[in-house]
Specification:
The chain is built from nine helices and seven strands. It has 248 residues and is α/β, with parallel strands linked by helices.
Length: 248
């Protein structure tokens, strides 16, 4: 482990891909600021202990990242606790999958608020911290759904396509301050989010994947680790698809 005093803030990190990213960045030597909606997300969950076993510090900061006021408190508290925010991973996300003709306004608005507005909130607030530091790496979780579309996901694909545009915009705004902003676009990854899919949806997805298997959260975390480290110092405004060849 390369020991540093750097800190990574990962939204929605109690489980799934966010938890895998926390563990990987802890192994890279980052102190970890966990976030999820509430403390109960971390009950009966050993992710914080596993991160601390890597020899770094870790603390939980509950917040609803779709709410700007929550994000203001979150960023202030993380900065006070750790001093710097060197890596921001905008990972929190939800799905409310329904065919477009049957989707309610509430289902549409909720996914946009949690997946997309949260990324505005956090890039605005952490961006200010990183501008003062003159360094930082931001990694946003997009999705193949935002690149290619996906039936019953007009809300989700809109939010993820927006994240790609937002990533490129903020990369251009912050590039001159030595801050990189990139996105990863996972395909079909084994997590509680995808456990909700039907067998039919799973089989359809698998038939389109060149590698004929689903991805694991650790396979997203390893790319995030690259984008959070100095080996990617000249990479910004990019979207890296991690899908086992779904797009070919
Ligand atoms: P997950 O297992 O559902 O985890 C998402 C986490 O975000 C949960 O712990 C959730 O908390 C939390 N969260 C939800 N709303 C929040 C809010 N308003 N504020 C703070 N935290 C919130 O999802 P995942 O599969 O790991 O996905 C992680 C990211 O990767 C998401 O952005 C997702 O869109 C993206 N992605 C996933 C896949 C995939 O195949 N899994 C593919 C492409 C992209 P609760 O448990 O309380 O809801």
């Amino acid at each position: 482990m390369a020991q540093t005093t750097k800190t990574a803030l990962i939204t929605g990190s109690a489980r799934g891909i966010g938890a895998a990213i926390a563990l990987r960045l802890a192994a890279d030597g980052f102190n970890i600021a966990f976030n999820d909606l509430n403390m109960s997300a971390f009950e009966n969950n050993d992710i914080v202990d596993k991160v601390k076993e890597k020899g770094v510090e870790a603390e939980i900061f509950p917040a609803d990242v779709s709410k700007h006021a929550d994000c203001e408190k979150l960023v202030k508290d993380v900065k006070t606790r750790f001093g710097t925010i060197d890596v921001l991973v905008n990972n929190a996300g939800i799905t409310r999958d329904v065919p477009t003709s049957m989707m309610t306004e509430e289902q549409y608005d909720m996914v946009i608020a949690v997946n997309q507005k949260s990324v505005f909130n956090m890039m605005k607030l952490v961006g200010k911290v990183m501008i003062r530091q003159k360094s930082g790496h931001i990694i946003n979780l997009a999705s193949v759904s935002g690149i290619y579309g996906n039936p019953a996901q007009i809300n989700y694909s809109a939010s993820k396509a927006a994240i790609i545009g937002m990533t490129k915009t903020v990369a251009k705004e912050l590039g001159g301050r030595s801050i990189t902003v990139n996105a990863v676009a996972p395909g079909f990854i084994h997590t509680p989010m995808t456990d909700k899919l039907t067998e039919e949806q799973r089989a359809a997805m698998l038939s389109r994947i060149a590698m004929k298997r689903y991805g694991e959260p650790e396979e997203i975390a390893s790319v995030v680790s690259f984008l959070a480290g100095e080996d990617s110092s000249y990479v910004t405004g990019q979207v890296i698809e991690i899908s086992g060849g779904l797009s070919m």
